[in-house]
């Protein structure tokens, strides 16, 4: 068990170091930072002095080490385009993305479990069939088209909901929240559905297939034979046993939600981290790109690690397998 | 005629004839591909030649004569008086070109990496599969965006618009090779132990010849399936990137770029500038996807 944990943590650190190397190489080889900082009227002496000052005359591994130290301190330098520290930009934008991800994750989880149970219990019903077919088409639709479709219906034709931005936000310390105003809550609806729809179909299909699997088991038949109500069988006995894989998949999807937020944020001009990143790619703003790359990989690797460890902690069979494999 | 009859009588042909959805999907794929390939012959206008554009024709609704010039356009015109139908045909050409080229790149990279990793094994296998694992951790659209950003930074600013299409192909191709590599590696591991490979080794054929002449043909059928589904994914990835403004430039608009342009006119009521490119993308991606699904089931005897 311990050997597995150590090996898994070690692997994660290696992955992060490699991603850090990519991010660092961005700084080092894409465009010349000295060129970016000095104006037209520069002499060779100026260039050399700045190089020494920035530490660019040091050997590559030394520079990489200093980059890692800075990154660990949360220091990614200044944005080329906005002239402000990247860390400030990220902190300013983070609440918008996190609130959006939270609401759409909740929507995906709640909607996916409810629809999954329904389609499993009423396997032959016309509504269940309709939901399954609709989910197939939904998976083939690109995210941005879903967003545009929702804007068209609910913002342009019906005029019920706003089509862009976060609405009014309330400041609590450094965090800005849209949860406390009516316009802020309204503004959350369409982006959350756009972002969560794909994950919802995923969770729905998973819950459905797990549920169908569990409902075939002997203990369910026995529960029915004891005369338990249909409801007690479905929710008390069957549902509980489908939830472990659902929680795992949801955990793994959390990272994808943040990554796909880039698309949703662009469609709805949502002032989050994803929009910041896509603008950085458009204008080749390397410090922002590098910082986003580091941030997202820490998140992805972290989530993967936690899910893997939880899996082993929860499921004793896996523990036995790993122990046997390690010997 | 005989060849066609034989094709229809084969296993594949049989399952094709008995799947109406697949026939409809194949019909759309053929029509759309033909439209893209023969765009210069079919398109009534040449939408990106400034000499033929008339700004007076801007915002003409579909099937209605323009208020000033009296000209009629099937699917209307955009803000600059470009015929939407012609723009879609040319845009599809770019979307499909990028899609095919990206899948081809991913296929070549993935198949070679998978074959060598599976046949030779050793440290090469370990390294390749580790890289594949790490890349799989991240969604491929994110990987494509990052590669696009890096490649854009590496090209000189005045070349960026011309290079955009190629950069796009490389970023989507590099983000999709893992699927091919994993499947080919798995299949190669199975094939490696078979007698024909041992026989080829005994008569002294070189490892390269065994891999590409003998093993490769036997691992191609799953590759074909992944390539078809990969084409649909690549078309969607290209459209997404172009829609986000990190893909095909407005001077060479793909379907995604057209949708990006059209989104701006949604609120002022010029719905056709957005609607027709979006529908084309949808039908194209869905049809290719359905064909891929059918191919997967038809080529995999276990699913029958």
Describe what you observe in this structure.
The complex is a heterodimer of chains A (327) and B (304). In chain A, 77% of the residues lie in helices and 2% in strands. Chain A contains 13 helices and 2 strands; from the N terminus they run αααααααββαααααα. Chain A folds into 2 domains: 1-81 and 285-327, no CATH class; 86-207 and 243-282, no CATH class. A two-stranded antiparallel sheet of chain A has the order 1-2. With 327 residues, chain A is mostly helical. Chain B is an all-alpha fold. Chain B has one domain (2-303): Orthogonal Bundle (MetI-like fold), CATH 1.10.3720. Chain B is built from 13 helices and no strands. Chain B has helices at 2-9, 11-17, 20-37, 39-42, 84-120, 122-137, 140-154, 160-192, 195-202, 207-218, 220-243, 255-263, 272-299. In chain B, helix 5 crosses helix 11 (220-243), helix 9 (195-202) packs antiparallel against helix 10 and helix 11 (220-243) runs parallel beside helix 12 (255-263). Chain B is globular. In chain B, 44% of the residues are buried. The interface between A and B is large, with 40 and 34 residues.
Rg result of chain A = 25 Å
Element string of chain A (H = helix, E = strand): HHHHHHHEEHHHHHH
Shape of chain B: globular
The helix count of chain A comes to: 13
Number of domains of chain A: 2
Query: Can you identify the CATH class of chain B?
Result: Mainly Alpha
Largest interface: A-B, 40 and 34 residues
Main β-sheet of chain A, in a few words?
A: 2 strands, antiparallel
Q: What name does CATH use for the topology of chain B?
A: MetI-like fold
Compute the average pLDDT of chain B.
83
Shape of chain A: globular
Ends distance of chain B: 29 Å
Structural class of chain B: mainly alpha
Helix content of chain B: over 70%
Q: How much of the residues of chain A is beta strand, in percent?
A: under 5%
String of helices and strands of chain B = HHHHHHHHHHHHH
Main sheet of chain B, how many strands, which sense, barrel? none
């Amino acid at each position: 068990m311990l050997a597995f944990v150590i090996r898994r943590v070690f692997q994660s650190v290696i992955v992060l170091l490699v991603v850090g190397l990519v991010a660092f190489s961005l700084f080092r080889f894409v465009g010349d930072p000295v060129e970016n900082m000095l104006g037209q009227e520069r002499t060779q002496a100026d260039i050399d002095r700045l190089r020494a000052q920035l530490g660019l005359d040091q050997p590559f591994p030394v520079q990489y080490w200093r980059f890692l130290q800075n990154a660990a301190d949360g220091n990614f330098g200044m944005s080329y385009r906005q002239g402000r520290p990247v860390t400030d930009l990220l902190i300013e934008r983070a609440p918008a993305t996190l609130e959006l991800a939270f609401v759409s994750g909740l929507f995906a989880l709640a909607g996916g479990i409810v629809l999954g149970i329904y389609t499993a219990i009423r396997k032959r019903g016309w509504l269940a069939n309709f939901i399954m077919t609709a989910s197939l088409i939904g998976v083939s639709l690109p995210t941005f088209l879903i967003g545009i479709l929702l804007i068209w219906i609910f913002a342009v034709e019906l005029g019920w909901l706003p089509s862009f931005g976060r609405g009014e936000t309330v400041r609590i310390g450094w965090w800005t929240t849209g949860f406390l105003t009516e316009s802020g809550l309204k503004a959350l609806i369409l982006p959350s559905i756009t972002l969560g729809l794909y994950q919802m179909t995923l969770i729905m299909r998973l819950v459905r297939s797990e549920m169908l699997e569990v409902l075939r088991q002997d203990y369910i038949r026995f529960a029915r034979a004891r005369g338990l109500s249909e409801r007690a069988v479905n929710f008390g006995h069957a549902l509980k046993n489908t939830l472990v894989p659902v929680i795992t998949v949801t955990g793994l999807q959390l990272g994808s939600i943040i990554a796909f937020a880039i698309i949703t944020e662009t469609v709805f001009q949502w002032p989050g981290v994803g929009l910041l990143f896509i603008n950085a790619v458009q204008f080749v703003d390397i410090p922002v790109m590098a910082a986003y790359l580091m941030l997202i990989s820490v998140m992805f690797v972290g989530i993967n690690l936690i899910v893997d460890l939880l899996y082993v902690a929860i499921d004793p069979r896996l523990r036995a397998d790993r122990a046997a494999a390690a010997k | 005629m005989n060849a066609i009859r034989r094709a229809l009588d084969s296993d594949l042909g049989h399952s094709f004839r008995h799947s109406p959805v697949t026939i409809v999907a194949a019909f759309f794929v053929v029509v759309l591909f033909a439209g893209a390939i023969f765009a210069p012959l079919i398109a009534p206008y040449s939408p990106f030649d400034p000499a033929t554009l008339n700004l007076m024709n801007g915002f003409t609704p579909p099937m209605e004569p323009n208020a000033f010039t009296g000209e009629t356009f099937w699917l209307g015109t955009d803000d600059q008086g470009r015929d939407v139908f012609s723009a879609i045909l040319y845009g599809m050409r770019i979307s499909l070109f990028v899609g095919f080229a990206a899948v081809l790149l991913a296929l070549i990279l993935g198949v070679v990496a998978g074959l060598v990793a599976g046949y030779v094994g050793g440290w090469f296998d370990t390294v390749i599969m580790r890289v594949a694992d790490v890349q799989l951790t991240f969604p491929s659209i994110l990987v494509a965006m990052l590669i696009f950003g890096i490649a854009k930074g590496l090209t000189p600013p005045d070349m960026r618009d011309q290079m955009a299409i190629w950069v796009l192909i490389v970023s989507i191709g590099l983000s999709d090779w893992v699927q091919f590599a994993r499947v080919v590696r798995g299949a190669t591991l199975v094939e490696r132990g078979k007698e024909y490979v041992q026989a080829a080794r005994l008569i002294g054929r070189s490892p390269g010849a065994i891999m590409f002449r003998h093993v490769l043909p036997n691992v191609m059928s799953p590759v074909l399936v992944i390539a078809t589904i990969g084409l649909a994914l690549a078309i969607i990835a290209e459209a997404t990137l172009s829609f986000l403004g990190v893909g095909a430039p407005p001077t060479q608009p793909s379907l995604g770029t057209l949708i990006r342009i059209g989104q701006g006119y949604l609120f002022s009521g010029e719905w056709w500038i957005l609607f027709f490119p979006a529908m084309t993308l949808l039908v194209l991606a869905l049809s290719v996807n359905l064909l891929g699904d059918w191919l997967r089931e038809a080529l995999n005897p276990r699913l029958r």
